[in-house]
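Lesson 9: reading folded outputs for more than one chain in a single document. The general rule is that every protein is listed as its sequence immediately followed by its structure tokens, and records are never interleaved. Here is the first one.
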Amino acid sequence: MLDFLFTSDAIMALLTLTFLEIILGIDNIVFISIAANKLPENQRGKATNIGLLLAMVQRLILLFFVSFLVGLKDPFYTIETSWLHIAISWQAIILFGGGLFLIYKSTSEIHEKVESPKHDEKELKGKKIKSLSQAIMQILIIDFIFSIDSILTAVGMTNGLHPNHNYNLVLMMIAVVISIVIMIGFANPIRKFIDAHPSMQLLGLAFLILIGFMLITEAAHLSHTKLFGNVVGAIPKGYLYFAIAFSLFVEFLSFRIEKNKKN
């Protein structure tokens, strides 16, 4: 296990996944803060911390559930025609459905942030919260909604890294725990940074579109899909790491240029 966690692939996956989990968690922090701010001041910090810890617990539970389904590799139905061959398994269905969901969710989130960035926040602000228990219940619902794309991203980033599926699960769990701990400790600085550089969140959502396409091709590859005699191959994760690292490098260069202009 330790040998795997210290391989270059595992370290790159852990760093990239932790970064994406934090970027995806920004909206979660914002909505938790809105719900918590409706409480008396002495209860706000408690509600925020409880909300983030519940987010971590929900993500870990969902990871176990989704990982179990992804581990069901044996095909239960085969489509065989003159031009198409697919061996359908639960693993392929979860990856394919997850890929479609990430593409849809990311595209709609990007559209909403560009066209009406404060729409969901206004809706939440309009809801009444009178007690800590009501706030925590509201936060639980928010956490669940934001957990889905987080879990699918984790599966997309780690699936296939190691033949033993439990190793990949441990890697995902470590990334989730690290990201939540960072968000608990640095929630306000992270939120201020994203508010000052909203392009970072849009970049994170764009990465999810890439991961969504990768999940779809991986589902086709693991289903041994043949289209007109051509086998669908898997996209090496190194390409994804390079695309994310290069995009972030360009983004930080842009930050540097803007900072120099202000100075």
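And here is the second record, again sequence then tokens.
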Amino acid sequence: MRHLLSTRSLSRDEAIALLDIAEDMAAVQHREVKKLPTLRGKTVVNLFFEDSTRTRISFEAAAKRLSADVINFSAKGSSVSKGESLKDTAQTLQAMGADGVVIRHPASGAPYTLATSGWIDAGVVNAGDGTHEHPTQALLDAFTMRSRLHGAASRGKGLDGVRVVIVGDILHSRVARSNVWLLSTLGAEVTLVAPPTLVPVDMAGWPASVAFDLDEALATKPDVVMMLRIQAERMHGSFFPNSREYARTWGLDDARFSQLPTTTMVMHPGPMNRGLEISALAADSAQSTVREQVANGVSVRMAALYLLLSGERGELR
């Protein structure tokens, strides 16, 4: 694997292989010494142009557990705040000998530009670009679903027939986009639920159905309900009347949660707005996978870095 930029370009076999490697990486987390020598001598740069807690720390932990050297770069306080371009930043990293670059950027397509421009030889991982994609989040979500559904017998399996309902701000969510493509590739049936104003105008080709009534979607007893954060920082208009109205109509409150089968997984990529898109009861229940998703993120990102930075590099992905 040369780069990891999108889930849309991953084949089923590639996605399952990555999840299987993540299973091996998860086993390392239970050892007394949680490190492998695999990437010793490699340098991974976390190049974050947007604020992040979970993703940046997760990638840092993943790289260090593979024995790589890690450089954390934040746009705030760097030359970027003085007007330095992405090209100049990339060439600086090239001069420093970066082997892998994990990039989060507010502009959709920035990771692809970095990977294909020739500015840098490093493998590139997309850690979220604008409202485009966030592939490792989708991979850790799929890993979490697979682990809960199949347990120790997960290896080699997809998510065939699993019914997933994704609820919330689809319009601005790169997590939703990556999940739609990946989950569909793995055989899941995806339904998107949102206010009409928070659904992309052009969804031609998306392998998912769209609904606007959350109660009707939950009445089908889905295997997974994934709640998304309202991304107020990306909104420049009124997409719904107010927070109370949104929570009443599209939030997973106590009443809706109590009607779900006890086998239904409740997921959230974080950070959560408790009381808005999800209630505390749902978020803290035994059905919630929120903490598992964070823990699994390290294993999945270890797998991604392993594939990018060890052995031969294949064609662009």
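What the second record shows: The radius of gyration is 19 Å.
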